[in-house]
């Protein structure tokens, strides 16, 4: 079953992230699409892993969803988090903060 990991970053880093992924073999599966409202989206893919970039004109941030499964997804996440860009996970946890990432990604235990 596919798994999805979410990130955000400042909009100005989108082209650099796209270039870094392309340098590692990712291709533009769906080129940048823009709506009449100014929202934009694109998909980059390598094997079973896809990166969905979306940006709303009212935001300074780009939302990034990484879809895939198994070892290819794990490798993509390691690559993405190793890039020299300020990526954030939901709840504003820096992606390179391993202790905080473990908390955000921990399964919900039902305890508060």
Strand and helix map with partners:
Blueprint lengths: L2 E8 L3 H10 L3 E8 L5 E7 L2 E7 L5 E8 L1 H13 L5 E2 L3 E2 L3 H8 L7
Query: What is the overall silhouette?
Result: globular
The helix/strand order is EHEEEEHEEH
Structural class: alpha+beta
Oligomeric category:
single chain
What does the radius of gyration come to?
Answer: 14 Å
Distance between the termini: 28 Å
Low-confidence stretches: 97-112
Q: How would a crystallographer describe the biggest sheet?
A: 5 strands, antiparallel
Describe this structure in words.
- This protein is 28% helix and 38% strand.
- It has 112 residues and is α+β, with helices and mostly antiparallel strands.
- A five-stranded antiparallel beta sheet has the order 1-5-4-3-2, with helices on one face. Strands 6-7 form a two-stranded antiparallel sheet.
- It is globular and about 35 Å long.
Please sum up the structure shown.
With 112 residues, this protein is α+β, with helices and mostly antiparallel strands. It has three helices and seven strands. The strands form two sheets. A five-stranded antiparallel β-sheet has the order 1-5-4-3-2, with helices on one face. Strands 6-7 form a two-stranded antiparallel ribbon.
List keywords for this structure.
globular, alpha+beta, 28% helix, five-stranded antiparallel sheet, single chain, two-stranded antiparallel ribbon, 38% strand, 3 helices, 112 residues
